Amino acid sequence: MKILHVAGARPNFMKVAPVMRALAARGATSILVHTGQHYDEAMSDAFFTDLGLPQPDVHLEVGSGSHAAQTARIMERIEPVLIEHRPDLTAVVGDVNSTIASALVCAKLGLAIAHVEAGLRSFDRSMPEEINRVLTDQVSDLLFTTSPEAEDNLVAEGIAREKIHFVGNPMIDSLESHRERARSSNALTTFGVAPAAYGLVTLHRPSNVDDPETFRRILDALLDVSREIPLVFPAHPRTVKMIGEFDLGVSVSGSSLAVVEPLGYLDFLHMMANARIVLTDSGGIQEETTILGVPCLTLRWNTERPITVSMGTNRLVGTDPDAIRREALAVLAAPPPPAARPPLWDGKAGDRIADVIVSQPERRTKEATRAGR
Ligand code: UD1
Q1: Does residue 31 contact residue 159 with C-beta atoms inside 8 Å?
Q2: What is the longest distance spanned by two Cα atoms in the chain?
Q3: 54-69 burial, b for 16+ CB within 10 Å, e for fewer?
Q4: Nearest protein CA to atom 14 of ligand 1, as residue
Q5: Which of 10, 15, 70, 373 is most buried, most CB within 10 Å of its CB?
Q6: Distance, CA 337 to ligand 1 centroid (Å)?
Q7: Residue 224: pLDDT above 60?
Q8: Of 257, 282, 137, nearest to 199 (Cα)?
């Protein structure tokens, strides 16, 4: 069986790695296509190295651009690759532009698609990722879900139950298989912080960093929190660009809010595992902190990962600066009780995904699904 995997942006790499590994163990052939949506060493190569991912077989080098330009470039460049390789199945992961762009091309070519991390919904269509999620799920033939409510979301959108497989969370597979190695990271020493004596921050959502007023208010709240506990803030390139554009660097310099370069997978994992508190607008970090048992405040009004709130350490605090300050101080005063592990977040999602894939009759996936529609 020949499976083509598409990866393009930082949060894709840790989801692709366990699936490829599990498929290799079952004798399937994998072809890895990197779209080039993320291209900086710190946003891409560092993750390939840390995760032990093979070099991509094909690199589309699409780079940055508007949503339309980036999506269109991926579509144009991946079409000939798909025609050449004619995979039995194309696996797309997550909710980035690379995900929908490649899924759409497969759908038009009549090629079978598996979506890993299907059915997550924030119900907020102003998020570009929500559009990508809904549309990718609509054209997918196999939908692999990470948490139980995802199936209800998919069924409510008219997706047949037979296509949906609840397999657990491949991002947690990567976390579990790298947890030990991450312990030898020197990141805490590099940033001069001690275990459980610092907070970790990430922000990159356009809704938080692209508007100067919103971003300034969030930064003000973070500066207040940093007077209680030092904060390390590995900043995404988009965020760095906005700090420059909005001239926010001055308010941060000399403070205990250290804006640093993006970290590799192992260093970031180590920093998360040892943090007293994490403040973020990322999706994946809400999941990782749940498993690490580290309190997470999500600076968004909604989440497509509600299980991290109902079972995990995550709390939605929005972007109101008073709420950020209040909730952060409450966590520092009394950390919440340990979280439960969501079902099937056990490090074996890649195996379950590979078992389903290899049990599909070769090349019949699409026809079988069509017949069931
Ligand atoms: C993308 C995903 C988002 C994900 C995030 C993780 C979409 C719609 N968004 O957002 O869901 O949470 O990745 O990081 O797919 N840039 C660089 N170097 C890079 C990559 C980006 O400098 O290697 C800069 C460029 O200025 C670029 C900007 O970051 O224009 C945004 O990159 P883009 O891939 O468009 O979106 P992200 O914000 O990274």
Answers
A1: no
A2: 64
A3: eebebebebeeeeeee
A4: 10
A5: 15
A6: 34
A7: yes
A8: 257
Q: Does the active-site annotation cover 59?
A: no
Decide if pLDDT at 365 tops 70: no
User: In the beta sheet, which residues pair with residue 280?
Assistant: 202, 298
Task: Locate 304 and state its tokens.
Answer: 């497509």
Name the residue type at position 189.
T
Rounded CA gap, 88 and 359, in Å? 12
Supply the DSSP symbol for 156.
Answer: H
- Residue-wise pLDDT tens digits, 113-122: 999 999 999 9
Tell me which residue of 327, 154, 92 sits closest to 225, measured CA to CA. 327
Distance between CA atoms of residues 134 and 222, nearest Å = 33
- pTM comes to 0.96
pLDDT above 60: residue 367: no
CA neighbor of 323 nearest in space, from 335, 331, 334: 331
Closest CA to 29 of 331, 372, 371, 362: 362
Closest CA to 142 of 166, 125, 123, 164: 164
Q: At what angle do helices 349-358 and 170-182 cross, to 10 degrees?
A: 140
Among 88, 83, 116, which residue's Cα sits nearest to residue 29? Answer: 88
Cα(320) to centroid of ligand 1, in Å? Answer: 24
